[in-house]
Amino acid sequence: MKKIEAIIRKTKFEDVKEALLEADIEWFSYYDVRGVGKTRQERIYRGVVYDTSYIERTLLTIVVRDINVERTVEAIMKTAQTGEIGDGRIFISPIDDSIRIRTGEHGDISLYNPK
Q: Which CATH number covers residue 100?
């Protein structure tokens, strides 16, 4: 099992969500986050200076079976990529175990409902 964390543009969240559902990834968590990126700028709007170095993004956290890692990353990459600075990052980490609280199931079976 792997945990995939993806930091994406907020404007791309709905597209990525749909792509994940199409790839049969039906469960994930997401959070609105802020970060500091490489770009540092200030913008002036109606005489007020705004610091745009704090970047608002969405963080997706997805735990998948090993066989679904590639399709999950592909779905995120295909829909979140604009080709511009600030598209985000994807991190993949190993997960030792998963337990479904309701049934007590361990491992891969706890991540999905067999059909």
A: 3.30.70.120
Task: Give the total number of structural domains in the chain.
Answer: 1
> Which segments of the chain does DSSP mark as H helices, in order?
13-22, 69-80
Type of residue found at 14 = E
Domain that holds residue 15: 2-111
pTM of the model: 0.83
Distance CA 22, CA 43 (A): 38
Closest C-alpha to 9, from 79, 80, 70, 112: 80
CA 87 to chain centre: 11
Angle (CA) 53 41 61, round 5°: 25
Q: pLDDT tens-digit profile of 55-107?
A: 789 999 999 999 999 999 999 999 999 998 888 999 999 999 999 999 999 99
Distance CA 70, CA 67 (A): 7
